[in-house]
Amino acid sequence: MKTIGLMGGSFNPAHAGHRAISLFAMDSLGLDAFYWMVSPGNPLKPKSDMAPLSARMASAKVQTRRTPIKVTAIERDLGTVYTAESLQKLVARYPKTQFIWIMGADNLAQFHHWRRWRDIARLMPIAVIARPGYKERVVAGPAMAWFRRFVRRPEQRHHWTKWSTPALVFLRFRPDPRSATALRRADPYWFHRYKELGTRDGVTRNIVL
């Protein structure tokens, strides 16, 4: 079966840190492919600070050039808003593919705020990438209290396709301080560079305008 890593987010904008983490996860987990699922809208983030989907897709395409990473807005095609619903539909659509959800430690710290987050954990394994400054928040968070008995040792990561779920593994990645928030502060109108462009979805092949 084909193995694919999934990383969702606003990518507002996408940056080299996203790329580095994704390529590291691909190598660490032995993945065949990697999808960036660019969210049409994040329920946990303010809409006023969100660039248009087409611009975020275009910035992601720039960052993934010459890599196996595919950029997709498939949630728009699926008609879903919440990650749990999106992943359920993806698993149903691609029954011959094994997926693993990839997220940063910053997301695990707030994972308990996600709708039906336990359903996500039961649907597919989760790999968490270390992020600077989040270790204490992760350890003390409600999600980690639930996950604790499901944590797998990092040296077992190559066997993730055989794990029963829930299953969570931490991947040790060198600290990377880059963030989309910092990039927006430095260049609030970054998306103007992409406003006239249409981007072909790497999975559905539709044009995102």
TrEMBL record:
It catalyses: nicotinate beta-D-ribonucleotide + ATP + H(+) = deamido-NAD(+) + diphosphate. One of its GO terms (molecular function) is ATP binding. Pfam families: CTP_transf_like. Residues 6-167 form the Cytidyltransferase-like domain. Signal peptide: none annotated. Its EC number is 2.7.7.18. Pathway: Cofactor biosynthesis; NAD(+) biosynthesis; deamido-NAD(+) from nicotinate D-ribonucleotide: step 1/1. It comes from the Bacteria. Keywords: ATP-binding, NAD, Nucleotide-binding, Nucleotidyltransferase, Pyridine nucleotide biosynthesis, Transferase. GO terms for biological process: NAD+ biosynthetic process. Catalyzes the reversible adenylation of nicotinate mononucleotide (NaMN) to nicotinic acid adenine dinucleotide (NaAD). Belongs to the NadD family. PANTHER family: NICOTINATE-NUCLEOTIDE ADENYLYLTRANSFERASE-RELATED (PTHR39321), PHOSPHOPANTETHEINE ADENYLYLTRANSFERASE (PTHR39321:SF3). This is Probable nicotinate-nucleotide adenylyltransferase. It comes from Sphingorhabdus wooponensis.
